[in-house]
Amino acid sequence: MKNNIYKLILLTITSILSVILISDFYPVMAVHVPYELEVAKQIYFDRCAGCHGILRKGATGPDITDKRMKEKNYNLDAIKAFIANGTPGGMPGWKGILSDNDIHEVAEFLQVEPPTPPEMSLNDIKQTWNLIVPVEQRLKKPEHNRNWQNFFGVILRDAGKVAIIDGDTKELVSIVDTGFAVHILRSSASGRYFYSIGRDGVTTLIDLWMKKPDRVAAIKTCHDARSIDVSKYSGTKGNFKDKLAVVGCYWPPHFIVLDGNTLEPKKIVGTRSYTYDTNEYHPEPRVASIVASHHDPEWIINIKETGQIWIVDYSDLKNLSITQIEAERFLHDGGWDATKRYFMVAANMRNKMVVVDTETKKLASIFETGNKPHPGRGANWVDPQYGPVTATPHLGEGVIAVWGSDPQGHPENAWKVVRKLETLGGGSLFIKTNPNSRHLWVDHPLNSDDKIRQSICVYDIDKLDDKPKCWQASDRGRVVHFDYNKDGDEVWVAVWDKNGELVVFDDKTLKEKKRIKGDWLVTPTGHFNVHNTMNDIY
Ligand code: DHE
Predict the structure, then answer these.
(1) Which atom of ligand 1 is nearest to the CA of 288?
(2) What pLDDT score does 35 carry?
(3) Most exposed residue of 23, 256, 346, 537, measured as fewest CB within 10 angstroms of its CB?
(4) Cβ-contact 333, 347 below 8 angstroms
């Protein structure tokens, strides 16, 4: 009885205190507003921040700060109409995806000053570190007889999980809990581990040698992230294979170096700096793609908003050396040429590709390809007419641009667009081929037409003047991203839908070999073959 009276008194005091506190911060609508602000902030973070930035200063999408809304005289209804219907600049309409109420909330949110999200120190990050299986307790050899170098890691985006599928048998081997909306997976240099990075900055280390591959370590590296890679170098400067990992964050804008085997955080480096061209301070220069060099202990780290490419030497973390290359603004995705000497990255809002020579550590070229190039990792092949080439599709137009990428053997074609191939329309994200194939595959998942976004096209590399073969690979969702199997004779593509599928095609005949289905296949997006990912084969 006495206890209950104490509890009642405590509850009353707590309630009075919360009302006082809340109304202090939000004097007008004490309880209602903070809830809605949180909802709007979350929707903005999930759906809009990737393109417009957390501080809304713009990148792939334009500046949408409250200041600019006022300058443009956009009132609530005008903003709601933009969000609902999309824009001619390429923003998709959100009607049908967001409710009318959500659209209203976001429109209101865009009229007030963007709140600055919290920072995160190395110590804050360390508090989230979870070493699930210490290294000494891990397996000394695989616990199964499967051909694990032909495993595929498949992102189950909205489920916050990654599926591991046996590429030989097409069986589901395991499903692993990861961060929210995992963006990409990368393989360790040995291939034994998959590293996943969630949009929420959660990094997960998955051990493929376990009978049922599972997490052996996890850590939250920031609040918003898209990229991760590992140390791949072994040579006279040391053996760094599987030793380090690096995560690139959108917010806070930093990259963080982790122990490759345990994910223990080692070093954090902020990217806030000055734009390469106007030399103005930028508060949110986000880390876009990262690749690991095979010939030096270095990562190539792309800083989106300041337009700089940083070559980071990870061999001495205490005396870190970074070469900062002035490139172009809004760097996004990219990959290696076939020799892995040149790194090529899209500056998508400037319609350009930027090339860095990682041997001389200098900018090699910047050239135009078309409306918003989006190469993914790109595609490399030996063209019958132009020699070694690389290609990108585009978000803004139905074109694949092909350029020479062999300045030593074919200097006349180097960094020049030598072919333009027609696709079914804009909205392409990924392209793929393989050294064992003479086919080039392209998707169109962001096209506004249902049929086109469910269609893929395949070009015969030896007859690029001929029309490609195109077909609808699914009657629902969006068909997105490719990877080959280890032998380079099968291509896997994802049907990005609540009831998702993986469709496996024979690369020679283009015939469908298998449709992997199951209620666990929730919104599959990127899917990564171990052998191709560890060796950067694309
Ligand atoms: Fe991605 C790669 C950022 C939307 C699927 N995406 C990348 C990379 C970056 C990036 C920086 C390069 C990583 C690297 O190589 O280190 N992506 C962004 C965005 O900012 C953007 C435009 C908006 C957002 O809010 O995230 C965005 N991306 C998408 C999607 O909508 C996709 C289709 C599904 C999803 O997960 O949301 C998507 N992005 C992918 C995939 C890759 C990728 C599958 C890796 C391609 C590869 O073959 O390596």
Answers:
(1) 11
(2) 53
(3) 23
(4) no
Distance from the alpha carbon of residue 226 to the mean position of ligand 1, in angstroms:
7
Residues facing 248 on adjacent strands: 227, 255
527 is catalytic: no
Q: Take atom 27 of ligand 1 and give the residue whose Cα is closest.
A: 50
Give the Å distance between the CA of 430 and the centre of ligand 1: 10
349 in active site: no
Consecutive 10-residue runs of the chain (538 residues): their mean pLDDT? 47 39 30 64 89 89 92 93 85 86 92 91 98 98 98 97 98 94 97 97 98 98 97 97 97 98 98 97 97 97 98 98 98 98 97 98 98 98 98 97 98 98 97 98 95 98 98 97 98 97 98 98 98 98
Burial class (CB in 10 A: 0-12, 13-18, 19+), 171: exposed
Measure 347 CA to ligand 1 centroid, in angstroms.
Answer: 14
Taken in order of first residue, the domains within the chain and their CATH numbers are 26-109 (1.10.760.10), 122-534 (2.140.10.20)
Task: Compute the distance from residue 348 Cα to the ligand 1 centre, in Å.
Answer: 13
Question: Is 534 in the active site?
Answer: no
* CB contact at 8 A, 167 and 149: no
Given this model, what pLDDT does residue 36 score? 81
Q: How many CB atoms are located within 10 Å of the residue 423 CB?
A: 25
By most ligand atoms within 8 Å of CB, the mutation choice from 184, 223, 523, 528 for ligand 1 is 184
User: Ligand 1 pocket by C-beta < 6 Å: which residues?
Assistant: 50-51, 60, 157, 183-184, 226-227, 288-290, 332-333, 376-377, 429, 480-481, 525-526
Task: Extract long-range pairs of 21-26: CB within 8 Å, 24+ residues apart.
Answer: none
Token pair 């991203």 is found at 481
| SS3 of residue 171 by DSSP | coil
For residue 47, CA distances in Å to 83, 92, 182, 284, 327 come to 11, 11, 14, 18, 28
| Alpha carbons 51 and 61: distance in angstroms, whole number | 5
Q: Is 315 exposed, middle or buried (0-12, 13-18, 19+ CB in 10 A)?
A: middle
48 classed as catalytic: yes
- Measured CA to CA, the distance from residue 194 to residue 204 in angstroms comes to 8
